[in-house]
Design brief:
The complex is a heterodimer of chains A (about 220) and B (about 220). Chain A is an alpha+beta fold. Helix content of chain A is about 55%, strand content about 10%. Chain B is globular and about 55 Å long. Classes of the chains: A alpha+beta (about 220), B alpha+beta (about 220). The interface of A and B includes residues 59, 72, 73, 96 and 97 of A.
């Protein structure tokens, strides 16, 4: 019996991209359904009544919400291909700790392109501090998961296609401050699962321009 | 083989309480290290340099921080008295509700406590909406974990104590038994359950602590 997998998502969402990367890592076929968050579909409201947000994975009719929870679910159900979480409990705890930490980048990044002046400077500082800490955690390993691409790599890599947009509006360079992280993101992009799931940074930049207009940030 | 388990905590931290409960439910021997957060020990800063917070579990010299991460570590390391379900879908749901508790429920209840006027009214409305989802989740169950206390019960458990303390201090009903009968029963059942009931921080100390926090918040908002 074939699995039915549907992903409710928004093309530009780096959180949704985490799920796309995980599904690709496991070689899973699924139906992608683009959502309009200004006009939420009955399916989205039914499948995520609590938050009404994307991404939502619907597996054989049952919804799973929250990107990192979805990625763990995918890893646990399809455990015999490309494991994302390590098997050792201590390593797993470290991966979960840092993956949760990467979620901070979402709000800080938002503030970067939503605000101006001092608010934006504060967001920029916070954002770079996070990236630097993460770069420290990477160290000299090829991936956060060690020799293999893993859970924390999935959690963070999707932000990399947003770097260009953040840099443009925040007026800074990620590569100048965190060269190892940029090298790591390029290494990840050599993987089919990543390159096929991440969006073009120029398109993301265009998306942010559109969002800023819509939200009256000018 | 000697296991060395240490828990860095404060006497009142609701997040640390989750770990106390988990360790005791599983019958794990551990040593408590009490921290004074106004004067953090070098060890705390070494073990949790990122957040500099408690709780921290140190197992054979290796630290784990963030209470929900610690709960999963404990569950994976000591298999007796499992906290998370086996089925991946049920595990995903458990993680979802625990995160909902931290991100939304605790936040809205805290706002009911610390805010005044219109902001407090709005927080009450948000709290009611949030708790309705938990009410729905309780249908047909004694605990969120089913017949036994599980991961979600431990994650939400501090509410069973904090809500009544907040209600007493601000003189407002947050959980109405008539409107949220299942959640109300859960609060009673959880608070009185073996192990849980023996480990609540002293109520009088809690009242003093939170009253002081509220007084400070009111003072700073009226002087601005």
């Amino acid at each position: 019996m074939a699995d039915e997998i549907i992903l409710l998502d928004l093309w530009a969402s780096m959180l949704g991209m985490r799920v796309r990367v995980a599904l690709a890592e496991k070689g899973l076929k699924y139906e992608y359904r683009e959502q309009d968050l200004r006009n939420k579909s009955p399916l989205l409201l039914e499948m995520n009544p609590v938050h009404k947000k994307i991404p939502v994975l619907i597996h054989n009719g049952k919804p799973i919400c929250e990107s990192l929870i979805i990625v763990q679910y995918i890893d646990e159900v399809w455990y015999n291909k490309s494991p994302l979480l390590p098997s050792d409990p201590y390593q797993r705890a470290q991966a979960r700790f840092w993956a949760d930490y990467t979620d901070k980048l979402y709000e800080l990044g938002r503030q970067l392109w939503l605000t101006k002046g001092e608010e934006q400077e504060t967001a920029k500082k916070g954002f770079m501090e996070c990236l630097k800490l993460l770069e420290g955690e990477l160290g000299d390993k090829p991936y956060f998961g060690g020799q293999n691409f893993g859970f924390l790599d999935v959690a963070l890599v999707t932000f990399s296609c947003w770097f260009f947009a953040y840099e443009s509006f925040g007026n800074f360079s990620v590569e100048a401050e965190c060269p190892k992280l940029v090298a790591w993101s390029k290494r990840c992009m050599e993987k089919e699962s990543v390159s096929s799931s991440l969006e073009d940074p120029l398109k993301i930049h265009g998306f942010v321009i559109m969002m800023r207009k819509e939200l009256g940030v000018e | 083989m000697g296991e060395e388990v240490k828990l860095f905590r404060t006497w009142s931290s609701p997040f640390a309480l989750r770990i106390v409960w988990a360790l005791k439910i599983k019958g794990i021997e551990y040593e408590t290290v009490f921290e004074d957060l106004s004067n953090k020990s070098p060890l705390l800063l070494q073990y949790n340099p990122v957040h500099k917070k408690v709780p921290i579990l140190v197992h054979n010299g290796r630290p784990i921080a963030e209470s929900l991460v610690i709960l999963e570590y404990i569950d994976e390391t000591w298999k007796q008295g499992p906290l998370l379900p086996k089925d991946p879908y049920e595990r995903a749901m458990a993680r979802f509700w625990a995160k909902f508790g931290d991100d939304k429920v605790l936040t809205s209840i805290w706002s009911v406590f610390i805010k005044q006027g219109k902001e407090q009214e709005e927080a009450l409305v948000a709290t009611m909406e949030n708790l309705k989802f938990l009410e729905e989740e309780m249908k047909g169950k004694k605990f969120f974990g089913g017949e036994r206390i599980g991961y979600v019960d431990l994650a939400l458990g501090c509410l069973a104590n904090l809500i009544s303390i907040f209600e007493e201090i601000v003189g407002l009903k947050i959980v109405d038994e008539e409107k949220l009968p299942l959640f109300y029963s859960w609060m009673q059942n959880f608070a009185e359950a073996p192990i849980i009931r023996d480990n609540w921080p002293p109520r009088d100390k809690m009242i003093v602590k939170f009253q002081a926090l509220l007084d400070a918040a009111i003072a700073s908002s009226s002087s601005s």
